[in-house]
Amino acid sequence: MEISMRNSVLPVIAYAALALVPLAVVTVFGSLGGYADYIYELGRSFALIVFAVLLLQPVLAGRFREITEPYGLDMVVNFHKYMGVTALCLIIAHPLLLALGGRGLKLLTSLSVPWEIWLGKAALLLLLIQAGASLFRKRLGLDFERWRRLHDILAPTILVLAAVHSYFIGGDLKYVPGMRELWVVALLGSAGVFVYHRFIRPKRLPRYTVRSVEPAAQNVWTVTLAPPDGRSPRYEPGQFHFLTFRSDHVPEEEHHFTISSSPTEAAIIASTIKESGDFTRHVGSIAPGDTARVHGPFGRYSYVFEDAEVPLVFIAGGIGITPLRAMLRHMADTGADRRVALLYACKTEADIVFRAELDALAEGDRPRLDVTYVLSRPDEGWSGSRGHIDTALIRECCAGMLDEAVFFVCGPEGMAKAVLGSLTELGVPMSRIRREEFLLLD
Question: Where is the signal peptide (predicted)?
């Protein structure tokens, strides 16, 4: 799936244009720029930009392929997070600049202000709560489902409060022809995107049937799904999808999982899942015949997007082997003549996922695979590498590849950061390192 430069640049241009539309309209047709006090003008400009950014947040979070394919869903979600923080900073600055620009400190401190100003203050307070819950979710002890329910309540509430506040108090909306109508249409459009993403589309997703649930390693299960029409789903090795199981044994919640199967495996799609949380600890109880809504695939974490002549280094920790296994299986099934070094870290030998398959792939000639297992808690009989994947081990296992290989890193956050530090120490530029981050998806 080749993504052209044109297709990757157009969404950025479109976002910037839409975010600046309200400001541009009132600048050209309205009174913005007619005030002598630049600080006051700046405060009003921030309000217009904030509202436009808030309107576009549901679009960024909506998983639309036209937006996610050029960059990967993880990058789009991170951009969504950063724009939320940007909106918060601008909305905090908005009343401060208005006060400094001539409205006086009473705008900030007085209780005797019009109701529409109170709506603006309420929107600011809720946006502070929203940002705090999103940025510090784990420190606050919020699991993902509770955070998402809070987010689904606060986000539309903030948008409505901001819209009503600006509709009734914004001078530009009163005096610029068509601005109030534009405000209403934009609000309804944004709300429509939110409702479609959270409530309508999930009901329309295809329902796959669980074909099997089999142990893959200690506390790790491979769940294999069959599509409703019997056709092999289209995806690239290394991508992920969102699954919502309907089973008596797990909550009906949406979670993202890497697709561990290869696109060459006909008429099935599989995810290999580790028991690691309130939801996943029950995965082994899912039974054949249960069903799952599937939304995907997503992501650009795949070797198919790299030049065919470039050697590859896969560095995995624990269950992070799943996208790399999918890529290796795909290489073997398609006869891809790739040189690959795999460094795979686990705690114990029982934690190694796909051990037999990886060993078999290493014995073949396509791909040309070298596997190094590294255990941090090996038993006495272990004869392989011990400890952690560090700079010395990477240098040893990647001899002759460091200057040209593309590195795929997948594993726990601490392990991935340590590996990135080692790669930097070895002089590997970030342009040759691939890693997906799902800090807002789990």
Answer: none
Predicted model pTM: 0.87
Segments in 2-114 forming alpha helices (H): 5-29, 38-60, 65-68, 73-98, 106-109
Q: What is the Cα–Cα distance from 76 to 54, expressed in whole angstroms? A: 15
Distance CA 271, CA 286 (A): 13
Task: State the Cα–Cα distance between residues 168 and 182, nearest whole angstrom.
Answer: 14
Rounded CA separation 67/75 (Å): 10
Structure-token match 């921030």, residue found: 46
The residues with which 356 forms a beta bridge, in sequence order, are: none
Strands 385-386, 368-375: pairing is parallel
DSSP H or E stretch at residue 341: strand 339-346
168 closest CA partner among 117, 103, 126, 125:
117
- For 396-434, write each residue's pLDDT tens digit: 999 889 999 999 999 999 999 999 999 999 999 999 999
Class of the domain covering 5-204 = mainly alpha
Q: Are 280 and 273 in contact (CB under 8 A)?
A: yes
What dotted CATH number matches 207-298? Answer: 2.40.30.10
Check if the beta carbon of residue 299 is closer than 8 Å to that of residue 72: yes
| List of residues 6+ apart from 300 with CB closer than 8 A | 3, 69, 71, 72
Q: What is the CATH number of domain 306-434?
A: 3.40.50.80
Task: Give residue-wise pLDDT tens across range 81-133.
Answer: 999 999 999 999 999 988 888 777 888 888 888 999 999 999 999 999 999 99
- Taking CA atoms, 84 is separated from 91, 118, 127, 132, in Å, by 10, 21, 9, 11
